[in-house]
Amino acid sequence: MKLCEECRKEAASVFLTLAVNNKVREVHLCSVCAARKGVWQGTETGAFNSSDIVGNLSGYFKDFLPAERKALRCGACGLTYAKFKQSGRLGCPDCYQSFEPQLTELMLRIHGSSSHTGRTYSGPGAPPPSRAEAARRAATLKTAIQEAVKKEDFETAAKLRDALKQLEGRDG
């Protein structure tokens, strides 16, 4: 007979197996502690919210973090990597530098890429586009100019031409 890992008083009646980062851990809880953790809620009807269970068991997941990640800390605000993993929020702009390798790995897992490929800010004070981005924009503008000329929309074509000149660094 196993005792509950939470209260250490009652016999365990709920047995969960957690598998995180190729490490497996069994959690043994009594029915009272399981209900407190949200494990029993809704299981009698067959419908339960697994995110509630995982959220309530998040304390068990910190055991799976490698030691070097538990010790990581932002030098500016003092946020630890373990706290970031728990809350999902960074503490300050310096956290991006402090946790750069871990954030890169996280972005790869979540988005499949660690580099931004979406729209960027192009207003005042924006950094100049990369050569590849400038070439892509120029090709798009040239195609749009050709389409405007075909439609005999010369006003739009002139605006697009001016935008192309500005992109290429020529004054119009």
Structural domains: how many = 3
Mean pLDDT: 77
| Biggest sheet features | 2 strands, antiparallel
* Poorly predicted parts: 41-54
DSSP helical segment count? 9
Question: What is the H/E string?
Answer: EEHHHHHHHHH
Beta content? 5-15%
Alpha-beta content class: mainly alpha
How would you write the strand order of the largest sheet?
Answer: 1-2
Rg is 27 Å
Determine the fraction of residues in helical runs and give it as a percent range.
40-55%
What general outline do the C-alpha atoms trace? elongated
Describe this structure in words.
- With 172 residues, this protein is mostly helical.
- The chain folds into 3 domains: 14-63, no CATH class; 66-111, no CATH class; 131-168.
- 47% of the residues lie in helices and 8% in strands.
- The chain has 9 helices and 2 strands; from the N terminus they run E-E-H-H-H-H-H-H-H-H-H.
- The chain has a two-stranded antiparallel ribbon with strand order 1-2.
- Strand 1 and strand 2 (23-29) form a beta hairpin.
- The chain is elongated.
- The termini are far apart.
Keywords for this structure?
172 residues, mainly alpha, two-stranded antiparallel sheet, elongated
Secondary structure topology:
Layout: E1 14-20, E2 23-29, H1 31-37, H2 50-56, H3 58-61, H4 67-71, H5 81-87, H6 95-98, H7 100-111, H8 131-150, H9 154-168
Helix pairs in contact: 8-9
Summarize the structure.
This protein folds into 3 domains: 14-63, no CATH class; 66-111, no CATH class; 131-168. 9% of the residues are buried.
